[in-house]
Amino acid sequence: xxxxxxxxxxxxxxxxxxxxxxxxxxxxxxxxxxxxxxxxxxxxxxxxxxxxxxxxxxxxxxxxxxxxxxxxxxxxxxxxxxxxxxxxxxxxxxxxxxxxxxxxxxxxxxxxxxxxxxxxxxxxxxxxxxxxxxxxxxxxxxxxxxxxxxxxxxxxxxxxxxxxxxxxxxxxxxxxxxxxxxxxxxxxxxxxxxxxxxxxxxxxxxxxxxxxxxxxxxxxxxxxxxxxxxxxxxxxxxxxxxxxxxxxxxxxxxxxxxxxxxxxxxxxxxxxxxxxxxxxxxxxxxxxxxxxxxxxxxxxxxxxxxxxxxxxxxxxxxxxxxxxxxxxxxxxxxxxxxxxxxxxxxxxxxxxxxxxxxxxxxxxxxxxxxxxxxxxxxxxxxxxxxxxxxxxxxxxxxxxxxxxxxxxxxxxxxxxxxxxxxxxxxxxxxxxxxxxxxxxxxxxxxxxxxxxxxxxxxxxxxxxxxxxxxxxxxxxxx
DNA sequence: ATTTTTTTTAC
DNA sequence: TAAAAAAAA
Length: 478
What we know:
Pfam families: DNA_photolyase, FAD_binding_7. Helices cover about 45% and strands about 5% of the residues.
């Protein structure tokens, strides 16, 4: 009897290194499905929705070249997947495993399929190593990154990536939603223009980005990643978020760069740093799994009694890039325009919101969730709790970034600030980190009127720092 | 994955 | 006296 397989795509919108796909392609007929889930997973923010729409289009186009197409359905996956499996007469349903609260849905799907006599076949592919593979001396995954990273390294390289199937089964005609009806992309104000220029969602875009990075910025990654004025980041985060490239593919590509001739070879320190960043992604997924409410609850409950400021004006100024601290503002405007900012500036802007404005980290996390194209249910809350100090493994409460010092280090010539805060672009570089220090004459020559064309700092750094240290110290009870 | 203050060291 | 290192937050 001819077999039919259902392949359920989720956060793995790729054909390469896709174990579930490889296995499903062994059937006689194949149907590929994506479900816009309305239950059991965190609803996507605006920027991520834009990315998803483009990634789904890219995946559908790639599948059509193979005689397939991507079937779209929306609703509760626990009902949709078994129903579709029934509809097409599938004997097996394939997917790559995901981790965290979404596992509950997958369990429901598995049980519903079993009742119908259909087998769920699941595979690894979302992380470098599956959560259960990394264990500390207690048998649980280490809750601190350093030992986690040590264990992950000790586990060795993840298995080599596998290729997309070379032979494809036939497909079946199945009704699909129309992507346009999902309204994932902006219409009235089309705010995605800068995103279209900055990104190429989809597996091809991911592959090109990976190669560009491995052949380019990786060589100086350890230093360049700290610089806002250089393209030192890999910019792979949204591709990884939607699984257009697997962390395994990225890991092996970075390691492979060490085999290049000496002249083109990246420094081992840079490769190591980059691999550690990849490991942070695994670490965050472990954290999400251990703390399903990581986006809503402090991991350290002493933060439950911290008197966060409910004030709105400062928060709004932060979201709009109007704090009066040029590097903070540049980064927040960059985020709004391209749906992304480099890691160092995420730390700086998050620190500013939490420590300088005393805003609850959850407000900031939600803003990033809505505006980042790479908004990830594990990474985003993990990193916000890290900056807040409320995470199990996190920065100590007294770690407060100085926005001026950071500006001097990350953007010494002011190129990044000039790009995103053009109203002060004519100021000499020395004042682009702190325009309030320029004399009235220098401000006038640059066409800057503080408080009019560009804000005065909404808080004084020294005062804000002392205020935060006092409040945080009081919270700890010491 | 820091900043600021204090202390030490090196001219 | 200034830079570097250490300590404290």
